[in-house]
UniProtKB/TrEMBL annotation:
Residues 247-300 form the Peptidase M20 dimerisation domain. Keywords: Cytoplasm, Metal-binding, Zinc. GO terms for molecular function: aminoacylase activity; metal ion binding. The keyword Transferase does not apply. It comes from the Eukaryota. Zn(2+) 1 binds at H81, D114. InterPro entries: Aminoacylase-1_M20A (IPR052083), Bact_exopeptidase_dim_dom (IPR036264), N-acyl_aa_amidohydrolase (IPR010159), Peptidase_M20 (IPR002933), Peptidase_M20_dimer (IPR011650). One of its GO terms (cellular component) is cytoplasm. The keyword Zinc applies. This is Peptidase M20 dimerisation domain-containing protein.
Amino acid sequence: MSVHINTENDDIAVNNFRTYLQIRTTQPDVDYASCVAFLRLQARQLQLSMQVIDTVPDKPIVLMTWTGLEPDLPAILLNSHMDMTKIIKEWRHDPFSAYLDTNDQKIYARGAQDSKCVGIQYLEAVRRLKISGRLLNRTIYITFMPDAEVGGLEGMYRFVRTEQFGKLNIGYALDAGRPSPNYDIAVFTGEKCFWNLRIRCSGNLGDGSLILANTAGEKMTGVLKKFFTFRTAEMQKLIDNPEWTLADVVTMNLTKIEGGPQRNMLKSEFVLTFDCRIPLGTEDTEEVHETMLQWCRDVADDVSIQYLVREEQIPPTETDDKYWEVLKKEVEDFGLDIHCETFPGRTDSRHLREMGIPVVGFSPIPFTPVHLHENNEHIETLYFLKGIKIYYNILIQMGNLP
Ligand SMILES: [Zn+2]
């Protein structure tokens, strides 16, 4: 391939990336229709067949297919999501402009790292494979999911339970991970277990001028003290062990307090909501539950826990197979390295993993500070383009595995 064609492909890739980033897909008002239209155009150009699957109205799942020469071999799935998290802080540049700084070649936009980058990188790798006349033995599926940033319950969770998904016969899946600040690419093989719980503290109701016993406020104070003492200890573990990450500790965060409507009355009830994430490999998650229950009982007999979400632990994806070997080799060939990590948050990977499909969160974007869900999310075009080349080589190897 001549230098000229390379440059031309790089321009196409950057333009497509910026166009995709300019589509407003922040939760909760996600413009899926424009995404689908954009992706349809891409699929047509790349001569990939594309289906839009609606398991829930207005939550389209985009599935592109590049059928392999030996379609009975297990397929490779390349997954990313269309939706993005809200903008909460001031940005240096409009987060929907996909501003390209001509000095340092950085593209600023919500979704630049999570996960529109890999979505376009997959497509651009396929474009280059097609231009160079490559054919792969295995079928490649490329999916663009809705609702991943809000748990995927109306996206991947439903998709993996469809008859159609079962027929895809997926042998291995790559999902978005996150950029890596240096040469060592983090590959996410598992996720922490997520619990969302409400603790109900009820007590005597009365006028605001009284001093009553057994009030909801006192109980709430007792519960908060227990949770925050534990939280401080977990925080200390991170300080004492600099090599630890969020994946190694239990996080328990107070995310909501609900109480009565009147400001001069004692509330009969306060309800506290906690977001709780338990490290992968915790031997007995029941013990975590028992501990929290005991804290509540220590405060009062009638303080109760109700779970909004109580996920089970999902075993991590193994790294002793031929797929991992390909990943490692192809990344190393670029002078980079890879290592395993547990993802501290939640991604669509867990829905695939739950179905027994090996899946890793992998974004081949080195030397890039992590701005996932943060302001000034950006990516340097150099590393965006390098990632395309890495996927190109990975696809040739993985797509031809016997
Ligand atoms: Zn995200």
